Amino acid sequence: MMLLAYFHGEGILFSFLVHVFFGLFGGAVLLYGLVRYKSLVGVAMAIGYVAVTLIVASLSRRNLLLESAGWVLTLPWNAVLPCYNLDRSCTLSLAVSFICAELNAAILYFLIVWLSRSK
Predict the structure, then answer these.
(1) Is pLDDT at 88 greater than 70 in this prediction?
(2) Nearest C-alpha neighbor of 11 from the set 97, 87, 71
(3) 78 touches 100 (CB < 8 A)
């Protein structure tokens, strides 16, 4: 049992480090895009996307439909980020939702910049 607890502790540390890496990576990519391209529409869409995702994630504690919407809003990153439970029954947490929304907002920002420059 001690060995299982040790590996669980290592899993928590690894999960935390992965969350920090993806959070910093998403923030750096988003900041790079903001400095390089300066798109106000992209900024508004990225902030709106993160806000909607966090609102849905915070309201999804008791509603299965909102939890499903939260999982859809955080795709595909919610499949990459590990969770802390031993049985891998992950609920949608605000931290994971924020990291996934930040990564998706960076992609959305660059997509909006690319579409506005292609016209």
Answers:
(1) no
(2) 87
(3) yes
